[in-house]
Structure formats: structure tokens, C-alpha cells
Design goal:
It is built from 17 helices and 25 strands. By secondary structure, it is α/β, with parallel strands linked by helices. Bound molecules: adenosine-5'-diphosphate (ADP).
């Protein structure tokens, strides 16, 4: 027997039409490439999105067409999210930090028909000029006054919108229709495309609003430092309007001082981003002596947050919420423990608990398996590869059968490549990425664990552990560190500092100081680049003159 309820296909545009009605005084505050701060409400934004939709159709774009963006976090980028998907086309966000070769590959692979580019990024398009897909229409996201003098045949965004009507009958289409396309940063091989649908995107927004109540609340200001080109800024352009929040868009300046100033003047309540960004803000807060006024909630994800960082923000009175997820999961899969779950815990116990990835969101299922695919218990101790499934998880990669064949098990679960434990209480702890684990004498050493403890040493500002080959043990860990000041701790200092937490054989064989750690296009520490940089590295015991 079937239920007797209506079926309305889920559409992304309905989030914005809802926000414009329900929260007419909320909207967007954006740092613009033109140099000023721009404020707009959701009703004003909806009117501009309608104009954009007409303009897109005027360019001959419609259902299924891919429209690329190359832009920072700003209101025009937000408009494209809704305008492009609103007419049934696919908003393909391209990461401007990618090497030119990967950018070319992605534009070509996606078959983009138009490319909307920020004023400050037009140089990237000029560099690709001879390799752009044939017939790709470039639009510069600015007004006539600021249009750059460029050899590229480009249109002006505000000119396109100027004479279009402020209303539109949004078309209906099946909710499985593709709406967004985001390529993973391609740490191995070519980048792989996750193709989100209206259904997966709306469900993800609902799941995150329900799952992150401490961060999302009507009338508050939310700042995505995570870029709109990185998995839809973790869905914030959908969750913020749905939850009745104003989004503060930081544009292209993401250093600690710029973020601090913006957060202070715009009263940002919650800010979301990867740990490397928060290291910059943390240093700025320590310099100025107090956090930005009104800043209470920090969502960190994309890589494991070091314990010392969590403790530092918590000490300032800022609640840290660690979320875990992946591009292939839209991306959010978990939420850090809620304050109620930690109310009887000491400060140290709270910080320890927040180092885990928290509990799953409704709609995301976990299973951990061993190398043979045998399902392992959720006992908090047994470690295995984490597999996931749910309505917000990819079912295939876009146009990539080889990658698709490798990513799923026989039952259709998606393999995350993360090594994890799941507790009987559902708490997920990511031990490492499988390719970052150090395999020493048949035993695994977690690089994340070592990094966490080493970063707590006052002489170390940031660090990464990589595996280097060893003839007897297969691999040994080496600590690559950025010093916090002039004095550099010795390997003996570090061993002494970490001795309580690790067996002797788990401690790093060497410490190497660098000025900075290489970052990926999404702002995380790039272990791949580090491994390449250390290709000729020799462990101390094999150096000439060593005993
Ligand atoms: P990439 O880093 O390859 O660009 P993603 O942004 O999709 O791609 O990264 C997903 C991966 O990031 C996860 O598989 C996991 O290894 C790591 N990650 C994300 N959040 C966390 C977290 N809170 N703790 C530890 N690792 C995390």
C-alpha cells in the first residue's frame, strides 16, 4: 500500500524563494573584488537571480548545460548557484588554485559552455586562452566601470542582468536533475567529478540544518572561509538561507588579520573552514589579545584539527565543532559532540572528545571493513576502512568509469579511503587517510596522532608526518615542522615530550624544519607534495658518517 501524500520534486531555488519570504531582513554581506563591502537581502538577491536566469537563457543555456565559475566567496557567485541550477543547468565550480593543466582538464572534461570569472581571476583565463573549450562564453563578474581591458572575448555580468525582468516562473524538472559539479583536488591521477542533484543538495541542506543546531540559528551571521569552489562551501549557501542566517562572504583575502577585521565589524557568530586557515586566525587573536566580538562557534573540517588548536579556541570561549566529510558526500557526514553530551566533562576531556569527528548526520550510514571486505564491529577499537552510503553520497563519478569501478564495494557502499574506528555510541574517529599511514615492521602508525601531539609542543607551530622508506621496517615516520620561534626543539626534546603517548617504535626517526608546509588547492597540508620534496631524503641512520 502506498502513502497518499503529494510528491513535489525538490528544487534548490525553493530554498531561496523560502528565505526571501521567511527571512526578508537577512541576506549577504560580501567583500568585493572592486574593493568595497556589498550588502543585500534575500528578497533583493532573489530578484537578481531571476534576472540572471533570464540572461543565462539569453546566452542559449538550459537544462543540463554546464556553467563554470572561477570565483571567490561573494554575492555574484551565490547568485550563480541559484540562477544556474534554477533553470536546470549545472553550476560547475572550478578551484582557481589548481595548476593550469588540471584546470584545462576539468573545463574540458565537464564540457562547460560558459565560464563566469571574478575580476581578480581574469589573468587565469587569459593564461588558458589558447586551450579554452571551443565556444566557451566568458563572463566577467563585475560592472561596466570595472570591466578589465582584456584580449578575451568577454561579457560583463552586470550588463547581462541590467535589462532583464525581476521575476520568472521557475521551471519544474525531476529532482534527480543535476545541479552542481565539483571535482576533487586530484591527489592521485586526474580530478574526479562529483555531480550533485537538486534532491541530494536540498536533502544535504536539511540534514545539516537539523544536525548542526549549535552553529545555525536565525539572525546570526555565518562566515564561510571554506570556498564556494570547494564542495559548495560545505553547503553553506543552502543551509544559511534555509536557517535564516546572513552569510558574510570574505572574498579573496583569507589571512588572519583580514578575517579578524571582517568578523569583528560584521559580528560573525560562526565561521567554517579547514585547520590551516584557523591557525592564521588563532595567531591573530593571540596578537590582539581577544577574539573578534560575537564570535562563538567554529566549524573545522576537511582535515584533522590539532588538539592544541581546539584547546586554544575553547580557552577563548569559542566552541569548536569538528565535522568530517568528503567532496563525494556533499560533503558533511558528521557533527562534533553537542555541548549537552559534554556537560559533565572536564576541560581536557571536552577537548579530547572534540578531536574525534563526532557522530553521523541523519541519512549517512557508516561501515568499517578490513582488507578482505569483512565488516568490523563498532567497538571504538577495531580499525578499518570507512565505507559510507546515503542520499547525499555519490553513486558514480561523472564521466569516469575507471574511478567509479574502484570506489564502490559489491553492495554499493562508497569507500572513503579513511581509516577509522566507530564507537558503540556512534562516535567516529578518523585515524588516518589510508595513504598517509606509516607502515613500520608490519604495524601501522597514525600520522594524525603524531602530528597532534607534536603540534602541542611550544616550539612547533605546524607539522606533518610522512613515511619514508626503510630497508628493515618498510617505512619510518619523519616529522616535518615549522618552528614557532627562533629556538628549534631537538628530536630528543620531541621524543621526551611525546613519550607518554606513544611506544618508542612509533616515535619519528627525524625532525626536519621548513619555513612553511605545502598546501593543496583546498588549503590542506599536501602530503603528496611533501613526499615528493622528500624523495631524496636519507634517514639519519643511513647518512654518511653515522654509526
Ligand atoms: P581532498 O582533500 O582530496 O581535496 P576532500 O575535501 O573531499 O578532498 O577531503 C576529504 C577527506 O578529508 C576525507 O576523506 C578525510 O581524509 C579528510 N577529512 C575531512 N574532514 C576531516 C576531519 N574532521 N578529520 C580528519 N580528516 C578529515
Amino acid at each position: 500500500m502506498q502513502g497518499l501524500m503529494m510528491h513535489r520534486d525538490l528544487r534548490i531555488i525553493d530554498i531561496l524563494t523560502f528565505a526571501a519570504e521567511a527571512f526578508p531582513d537577512q541576506g549577504l554581506i560580501s567583500v568585493r573584488d572592486e574593493g568595497d563591502l556589498h550588502r543585500t537581502t534575500y528578497p533583493e538577491t532573489l530578484a537578481r537571480v531571476a534576472r540572471l536566469a533570464h540572461a543565462l537563457r539569453g546566452l542559449g543555456l538550459g537544462v543540463g548545460d554546464r556553467v563554470a565559475t572561477l570565483a571567490w566567496n561573494g554575492y555574484r557567485h551565490f547568485e550563480l548557484y541559484y540562477g544556474v541550477s534554477g533553470i536546470g543547468a549545472v553550476c560547475h565550480t572550478v578551484n582557481p588554485r589548481l595548476p593550469a593543466e588540471q584546470m584545462r582538464y576539468i573545463l574540458d572534461h565537464a564540457g562547460d559552455r560558459a565560464l563566469f570569472v571574478d575580476l581578480s581571476l581574469i589573468g587565469l583565463v587569459e593564461a588558458l586562452r589558447d586551450d579554452l573549450p571551443v565556444g566557451l562564453q566568458v563572463v566577467v563578474m563585475t560592472d561596466r566601470t570595472h570591466m578589465p581591458d582584456t584580449a578575451i572575448d568577454a561579457l560583463c555580468y552586470e550588463d547581462l542582468l541590467a535589462d532583464e525582468p525581476e521575476a520568472i516562473d521557475w521551471p519544474e524538472f525531476p529532482e534527480e536533475t543535476a545541479a552542481g559539479l565539483c571535482y576533487t583536488s586530484g591527489t592521485t591521477g586526474h580530478p574526479k567529478g562529483a555531480l550533485y542533484s537538486h534532491r541530494s543538495t536540498v536533502l544535504h541542506a536539511l540534514m545539516v540544518v537539523a544536525g548542526h543546531p549549535q552553529s545555525l540559528a536565525v539572525g546570526r551571521h555565518a562566515l564561510p572561509v571554506v570556498p564556494l569552489f570547494h564542495v559548495n562551501a560545505w553547503g553553506m549557501p543552502y543551509t544559511a538561507p534555509l536557517a535564516g542566517m546572513t552569510m558574510v562572504m570574505p572574498g579573496r583575502h583569507l589571512d588572519g588579520a583580514s578575517l579578524y577585521d571582517l568578523m569583528q565589524t560584521e559580528q560573525v557568530y560562526t565561521a567554517w573552514g579547514v585547520p590551516t586557515v584557523w591557525a592564521g586566525l588563532q595567531a591573530e587573536i593571540e596578537k590582539r589579545g581577544a577574539p573578534p566580538a560575537g564570535f562563538e562557534d567554529l566549524v573545522v573540517g576537511g582535515a584533522a584539527a590539532p588538539r592544541a588548536m581546539i584547546a586554544a579556541f575553547e580557552e577563548m570561549g569559542i566552541k569548536v565543532n569538528q565535522a568530517w566529510g568528503m567532496t563525494e558526500m556533499s560533503p558533511i557526514g558528521t557533527r562534533g559532540l553537542l555541548p549537552a553530551a559534554l556537560k559533565d566533562a572536564t576541560f581536557d576531556e571536552q577537548v579530547d572528545a572534540k578531536m574525534g569527528a563526532g557522530r553521523r548526520l541523519f541519512g549517512v550510514e557508516f561501515k568499517i571493513v578490513d582488507d578482505d571486505g569483512t565488516v568490523l564491529p563498532h567497538d571504538g577499537e577495531t580499525t578499518g576502512e570507512l565505507y559510507v552510503r546515503g542520499n547525499t553520497v555519490v553513486s558514480a563519478y561523472y564521466g569516469n568509469d575507471t574511478a567509479t569501478a574502484a570506489a564502490f564495494d559489491a553492495e554499493g557502499w562508497f569507500g572513503t579511503g579513511d581509516v577509522a574506528t566507530v564507537g558503540p555510541d556512534g562516535r567516529l574517529i578518523i585515524r588516518d587517510r589510508s595513504k598517509d599511514l606509516v607502515k613500520s615492521g608490519g604495524e601501522w602508525i597514525s600520522s594524525i596522532d603524531l602530528e597532534n601531539h607534536a603540534t602541542a609542543h611550544p616550539g612547533i607551530r605546524a607539522c606533518a608526518v610522512i613515511a619514508v622508506p626503510h630497508p628493515k621496517w618498510d617505512e619510518r615516520p619523519v616529522l616535518v615542522a615549522v618552528p614557532a620561534g627562533e629556538a628549534r626543539p631537538t628530536l630528543e626534546d620531541i621524543h621526551g615530550f611525546m613519550a607518554d603517548h606513544f611506544a618508542k617504535w612509533q616515535l619519528p626517526d627525524d625532525i626536519v624544519f621548513v619555513d612553511e608546509l605545502p598546501l593543496t588547492a583546498t588549503g590542506k597540508v599536501s602530503k603528496l607534495t611533501l613526499r615528493k620534496q622528500f624523495a631524496d631524503y636519507v634517514l639519519p641512520e643511513f647518512r654518511e658518517g653515522s654509526a
